[in-house]
Known about the structure:
Layout: H1 5-12, H2 16-38, E1 42-47, H3 55-70, E2 74-79, H4 82-91, E3 97-99, E4 102-104, H5 107-131, E5 136-140, E6 147-151, E7 155-158, E8 165-168, E9 174-179, H6 182-189, E10 193-197, E11 199-201, E12 207-209, H7 212-222, E13 227-232, E14 250-252, H8 253-261, H9 270-281, E15 286-291, H10 297-303, E16 310-313, H11 315-324
Parallel strand pairs: 1-2, 1-13, 2-10, 5-10, 13-15, 14-16
Antiparallel strand pairs: 3-4, 6-9, 7-8, 11-12, 15-16
Helix pairs in contact: 3-5, 4-5, 7-9, 8-9
Amino acid sequence: MKIKDSLIHPLLTLTDTEERGVQDINILKQALPYLKKYRGTTFVVKLGGELLTDPERLDRIAADISLLYQLNIKIVIIHGGGPQLSQTAERLGFEAKKVNGRRITDDNTLEVAKMVFAGAISTDLLAKLRRHGCPGVGLSGVAGDLIKARRRPKKKIIDHETGSEQEVDFQNVGDIQSVDTKVISILMENQFVPVISSLGADEDGQVFNINADTIASELAGNLKAEKLFVLTNVDGVLKDVKDPKSRYSYLTVEQGREMIQDNKIGGGMSPKLTSALDAVSRGVSRSHIINGMTENALLYEVFTLKGSGTMIVNEEEEAAYLDEG
């Protein structure tokens, strides 16, 4: 007896769930070369404070980082917290001071920075990592002589609002003199994930607020990391800041330096790109600037050739990247 077509079709057609499963398997196969390549290497991940304001977003990012950890990739996390610092300062009754977007850290602001960076943000991030099976350990740059800093000297700058030159005292803002990664290395050797807040100190124990992008770049270089990821709230380096589709998929160090020198990079992106460039110049294989607001952006950048942000490479790595295509 001939079986009716209406009975055959359900047996031969994949369900939507099965089709998604096949797609997932294909994606996993595409990721296999990267899984082999990065096993046992070190990734440094810098999280901008704007990414950490929403608990659900923070949970998604923690899940992605935890997945990398489960794949035997060593992870070091550095986080900022500018928005949270400003909000907390306002709640306490004083306004955060900035000149050309750069924060002036007076004594009151420093006390808030210690509470927010090494306290609230670090604890929330550690809790999310723990939820996904990733054993994080919270540190500041003061711990274990990790970051030796000095007070930033007064600088003459042009105020963008007034157009006049003025000498600015950033007060308790520090510049990095040296880093000692011993404590980080001990933690990673014992399967822990260091989570570092952006504070440092001088030899006299004076604590300073330090730019998190700069810390990430310095640590990535000193750890000889395979990759530095700078997670922010934009899609990478854009040719036209008003057009997300104008993203550069990659830039060489030389191209990036020229763009900064020619003032083709906006003020908010400039320190991030500079940190990414400096890391590659210090021996990091590849740096990546990606949009942490986008779900799974970190994983797409790690495990796909197309990626999701802007990658920074030297000339040798550029040739290798083009060969991968």
